[in-house]
Amino acid sequence: MGSLHLGILFILGIGVFGGILSGLIFQKLKIPQVIGYIVIGIIIGRTGLKIIDAQTIEMFRIFNFFALGIIGFLVGGELFMETFKKYGKQFFGIMLGEGVLSFGLVTTLTSLMMYLLTGNTMQSIAVGLIFGAVSSATDPASTLDVLWEYRAAGILTTTIIAIVALDDALAMTLYGISSGISQILIGDNASLAFELLRTIREIFGAILLGVGGGLLLNFLLRLSGNREKVIAFAIAIILIIISLAQMLKMDIIFASMSMGLVVRNIASKRSKGLFELVRSFSIPIYVFFFVLVGARLKITAMPWWMWVMVGIYCVGRNSGKIIGAWMGGKLTRADKVVRRYTGMGLFAQGGVTIGLAIIASQHLSEFYIIEGISLGETIVFIITATTLVFQVTGPHMVKLALKLSKEMLKNVTREDIIASKTVYNKMTADIILLKENDPVKKVLDVYSENEYLIYPVINRKNKFMGIISFENIKNILTSQDIWEWIVAKDLATESPGVLKKDMPLKEALELMNQIGVEQLPVLDEKDNVVGIIDKREVIRSIDKEIVAMKSTT
User: Fold this and answer.
1) How many CB atoms are located within 10 Å of the residue 236 CB?
2) Is residue 31 situated within a structural domain?
3) Which residues contact 296 (CB under 8 A, 6 or more apart)?
4) What is the pLDDT of residues 449-476, one digit of tens each?
5) Which helix (H) or strand (E) holds 499?
6) What is the crossing angle of helices 268-281 and 252-266, to 10°?
7) pLDDT recorded at residue 207
8) What CATH code is carried by the domain that includes residue 476?
9) pLDDT of residue 230
10) 300, 367, 420, 516 - which has most CB atoms within 10 Å?
11) 484 vs 153, which has greater pLDDT?
């Protein structure tokens, strides 16, 4: 048992470490970091070094459920009922357009290809229907990862989030119908009505389960103000909800997404900090989830016709997403930016598609296309390969859609900007320096003509020696008879702190908060005064920067 646990910990460690490192490299290359996570998975997985094999992937299956639960919860936290009331008609129109057209095109193209291979009409249509149904789903995890990475905000971003949240329900409904028809076509004793009822139960049961979890978490949020306990409650309830969903054979993402949506909309302000905490907590979970996605992919030894099927599937799905989203947006009078770019943001394919493909493969494993290759294996191979294609190209297309719509960096917070700056970026360099022998009269003139609370004092070698504050001079204001023999160095005191110009701005502001000051001098590496930091002016400047970012078109 000891070696088994050591193996699991090693795989977790190398997966998270390698994924984050690869993600940072890809980010430096202006490539969405999620692709880096998947690439590491491919390198250490079934296609590459086989450090993570099929048995290990199965062992981590429970981890995937947890990751999908966290993802679903965060997706729900991005959805506001006010937005649905305002744009709901557009969301549903676009979802139906892109989902149904993808289904139609992929079904038609793959059915034709299968017929050329087998000459069996019923079997070809059955397989085409399965491919069409699973093609309508969009992977929320990698899509949202790109939206969050590039701090996107705007009507296109909102639309993409809503569509990826709703796509699962459409894909499951289409799969329920297609699965029933497919099994009837190939001679299996299946009931279309039964498949539809099962799908409805899975979707609405998951929603009810999530709503119950959301109401419970909201109740606990009201009772507890402790941040650590709140996130512990949230993770615990997510675990309970996804385990119940799995046990009752309901959709995990829909259950956890409903939970997040309820919490966000019932307690919008109170839950804001909670979602930020969960998102921070989820980073290594995200990373390892996508490493497993890459590790799962096995794309070697596929016959030529399967690669043709991969190409046909990709063309049909992409065309359906782009044209269908445009048509849905046109019919519902969506903004031009939504019509043009929503389809580009829906290319990613992941967990739901793979899950449905695995279920379909189990139903069709006894039927063979050619000797040695079953329908079930064909579906899994092709969906695996297309998932690789879309997980690599999908994030790029989301980024391109954000760039073309100019919605990048519209959701930047004050903390984001502070973390990206140094003291030098936000200091005021145009300041008055008092020399050590300057008379009191000059000091008072400086205070009366300027607005700063402190002024640096320098010696004859222009080195910093202290500061003069209003506290230093107020005691001599009524004693003009001593002004003649007092100079600046007599009033100067040691500064409660100094800042270096290359110091991170976040660290500088934290220091100022700790010692309770509004302004501090800034020195260079030779202890020369190069500026001053005014905390209020820094915050004002950053807020203006945020407004400018959000108002640019």
Assistant:
1) 12
2) no
3) 41, 45, 46, 57, 354, 384
4) 777 888 888 888 888 888 888 777 776 6
5) strand 499-500
6) 140
7) 85
8) 3.10.580.10
9) 80
10) 367
11) 153
Taking the CA atoms of residue 151, residue 154, residue 155 and residue 161 in that order, the dihedral angle to the nearest 10 degrees is 20
- 90, 332 contact by CB (below 8 A): yes
Global confidence as pTM:
0.62
Beta strands in 362-478 (DSSP E): 368-370, 373-374, 434-435, 454-458, 464-469
> 327 pLDDT exceeds 90?
yes
Are 434 and 395 within one domain?
no
Burial of 483 (C-beta count, 10 Å sphere; 0-12/13-18/19+): middle
Q: How far apart are CA 484 and CA 482, in angstroms?
A: 6
Q: How far apart are CA 324 and CA 167, in angstroms?
A: 13
Q: What percent of the chain has pLDDT over 90?
A: 8
The top-scoring range by mean pLDDT among 169-183, 252-266, 348-362, 505-519 is 505-519
- Dihedrals phi, psi of 459, to nearest 5 degrees: -90, -170
Q: How far apart are the first and last CA of the chain?
A: 59
Of 347, 381, 411, the residue at which a domain comes to its end is 411
Provide the b/e sequence for 141-169 (b: ≥16 CB within 10 Å): bbbbbbbebbbbbbbbbbbbbbbbbbbbb
pLDDT tens string 30-71: 666 767 787 888 888 877 777 887 777 777 877 878 887 887
Residues ≥6 apart with Cβ < 8 Å to 402: 146, 147, 150, 152, 156, 157, 345, 408
DSSP 351-373: HHHHHHHHHHHHHTTT-EEETTE
Q: What is the pLDDT of residue 2?
A: 39
